[in-house]
Amino acid sequence: MNAHVQPQPVPGSGIARGDVLLQVDNVSLSFGGVKAITNISFDIRKGEIRAIIGPNGAGKTSMLNVINGFYHPQEGTITWRGEKRRKMKPYEAASQGIARTFQNVALFRGMTTLDNIMTGRGLKMKKSFFWQCLHWGPALTEEIEHRRRVEEIIDFLEIQAIRKTPVGRLPYGLQKRVELARALAMEPDLLLLDEPMAGMNLEEKEDMSRFILDVNQQFGTTIALIEHDMGVVMDLSDRVVVLDYGRKIADGPPEEVQANQDVIDAYLGVPHG
Amino acid sequence: MLYREAGQFKTTYAADQAIFPIAQDKWVVIAFAAIAFIAVPFLVNDYWTNAVFLPLLIYGLAALGLNILVGYCGQISLGTGGFMAVGAFASYKLMTSFPELNIVFVVLLSGGITALVGVMFGLPSLRIKGFYLAVATLAAQFFLIWLFNKVGWFYNYSATGQISAPDRAIFGLTVTGPTALPWVKYLFCLGFLAFFALVAKNVVRGRIGRNWMAIRDMDIAAELIGVRPLQTKLSAFAFSSFYVGMAGSLLFAVYLGAVEVTEAFSINVSFLVLFMVIIGGLGSILGSFLGATFLVLMPIMLKNAMVDGMGLLPVFAKHVEIMLMGLLIIFFLIVEPHGLARLWQITKEKLRLWPFPY
């Protein structure tokens, strides 16, 4: 179905597939007295699908927020592409190639699907304000060039029919897909997906899983995934990190994590007594 | 039947992204522009220019500017009157200090100065949002009016505190001052409005416009996909204030000729322009014009109907007019909270299917 999309060279120059793309070292994050994340370390390798799982309130979303610069951890370091990262703003993380989707859809509701995805191209569009005013010459060429790229993504995710629909009118499943499209439009090195399948039915989940795998294989995008559906997590991911109460309790391939006693305890509870 | 896009196939993205992708829209706008530029100048007299067209064009420009800020970028501003005053006083100072300066540049520079002032008062927008920002911009309104009233330098220490526009000409035709001909004033303002409406349309459908809308709709998500909040908000303040400043400059130099700051640019003006934007349609270029048309023309039509048509006393008619305007505003907002532009859009969608809607 996606035969016309050419496999693209793996973005993120200098880092080969399988090398560490992002390294989190001893990160702790607290809000006042509440410790959201305590001393967590893990890495994400280029080209893999890395799942972050854990019960509710385990600190998964906080972890993503730390990775894309929305929260600043009090302790620990984050190494991105081999360079230790200083404290940064979210848009700086975005310009370095980290994209993300949200647990509860965060689309620009007043804009059409096309405009939403085009917004994702914003960082790659460079033409000055002057040309923007004219919307002609270089600005028009640039606009159309990016429109072409956006159309490729639209084809890829099969959302051609809703191109010109304001996203506020779309059903939930499609909104999630548009959000993925917007993140893909940034051509990220690392794509953070926060519960991409929350609230979906089985068929929509299957579609979304297929898209995630395709993104990973065809675009070579590294993916960090938060998901509660264990079937999906076990099938999609290469490696899984498990959090509970802000601590890391397991890290490894899906089968290994599945068999880990700590993980089973965290999910099922431990009898006290 | 008439309004149908069947058979209009787009084969390029350029055609699909044209300002008016539907041919009928394009022809209507071209015909409208042709009438406005070619036919109307021969027809206007003093009354039509001063009572109808100039306020319409000038407030249209101001509403367009405010719509960029409120409708596209989601930053509420109640400082429009103050910013228009900045435009007016900037052009007064420019005209009196540099008599050789062409009036076109006077208007543009006044817009530029207002843009700078707008950016200054836009700085709080990074920290405060919504109604609180509205209150902060209200401070701009009061501060600027106070400033122009208090500091004599701005009105060249004239005894009355009034400023009045000297004669300025373009291509040998007087545009400002008492000797200016109605059609020259009309065309001058129309030229500005038409050109800058086109510019605004271009900007809002490009990268910058999308960034503004992204900030408006979901500022956190916008930031996470690489939109810089400060830069984006301030650019909206600058762009919007530029338009509002030009409108203030035209209002003073071309339309009124002489103004007293507390009268011409009071808080009422801020509200009037904001209502134009809300009634016309937030986030729509067309809506700005519809709103301005509605709020400028409706009182005149009501007055004419009541005074000339029904023979009521002008004073009495004025009161009824105010009440009727209020009623009409409420009526339109109940019918379509998203403004006249949305109403027009719905009409178009229905027209597409007419006469066989099923």
UniProtKB/TrEMBL annotation, chain A:
Alphabetically ordered keywords of this record: ATP-binding, Nucleotide-binding, Transport
InterPro entries attached to this UniProt entry: AAA+_ATPase, ABC_AA/LPS_Transport, ABC_transporter-like_ATP-bd, BCA_ABC_TP_C, P-loop_NTPase
Entry GO CC: plasma membrane
Superkingdom of the organism of origin: Bacteria
Molecular functions per Gene Ontology: ATP binding; ATP hydrolysis activity
ABC transporter domain boundaries: 22-270
Annotated Pfam families: ABC_tran, BCA_ABC_TP_C
SUPFAM superfamilies associated with the record: P-loop containing nucleoside triphosphate hydrolases
PROSITE patterns found in the cross-reference section: ABC_TRANSPORTER_2
Protein name per UniProt: ABC transporter ATP-binding protein
Species in which this protein is naturally found: Stappia albiluteola
Automatic annotation (TrEMBL), chain B:
Compartment annotation: Cell membrane
GO cellular component labels: plasma membrane
Signal peptide residues on this chain, from the entry's feature table: none
GO molecular function (one): branched-chain amino acid transmembrane transporter activity
Pfam families: BPD_transp_2
Membrane-protein topology: Multi-pass membrane protein
Entry-linked PANTHER family: ABC TRANSPORTER PERMEASE PROTEIN, HIGH-AFFINITY BRANCHED-CHAIN AMINO ACID TRANSPORT SYSTEM PERMEASE
Protein name: Branched-chain amino acid ABC transporter permease
Protein source organism: Stappia albiluteola
